[in-house]
């Protein structure tokens, strides 16, 4: 899609639409430049292109819409390209976030935020692709592609309670989705975890969560791994009926005291 051919979506919030287009001097050269000037009801629209940028948003809503995750890429060499901290509302859609450095960073970092992230891609994180953390993290992560990250695809910890629905978590080096810590209690529904180097989903270190209608297929170990102190809903015995956990070489699920032993932790 060319920059001239794409259509600018309407802003349903009553504010302006700020356009990002690195090829057109009439518009903003980077998403972060537009977001710096955006007010509470303004929407930022990113036209197709590859942008070297770092987006840091704190204590405000965000409306950031890209032309599609196959058309818009935001990458960074020195840190994660997206960091949200106490974002109170909003929507991020249609963008690939890619970390291309060598230090310990994720593609998306979401701390204590409440917004919707949908139809995006998180890839090549040295940590997980998406980090969701903090007791006030209530983000909705829906219909995203989280692939080829050096640890897990989506990692929920430190008491976060997000809704994780309809995501494709594939070819990550550890797990498709991992949940850790007391108080962490996501809803994990209709996700597809395939081709991950360990198992599809992991709940460990007192984590809880609703697991329903997920497909964990073709991972290199089990479909699902839990520790004895985790609290899944439904119960361990009911999980295979509530999710599709077939086609994993070690079986549908496992209850392990040391689920990270294979990676030396």
Automatic annotation (TrEMBL):
Domain of life: Bacteria
Keyword Repeat part of the UniProt annotation: yes
Right handed beta helix domain: residues covered: 88-221
UniProt feature coiled coil, ranges: none
Pfam families: Beta_helix (PF13229)
Claim: Repeat is one of the keywords in the record: yes
InterPro entries given in the database record: Beta_helix, Pectin_lyas_fold, Pectin_lyase_fold/virulence, SCF-Subunits/Alg-Epimerases
Keywords: Repeat
PANTHER family the record matches: F-BOX ONLY PROTEIN, F-BOX ONLY PROTEIN 10
Protein name (Swiss-Prot/TrEMBL): Right handed beta helix domain-containing protein
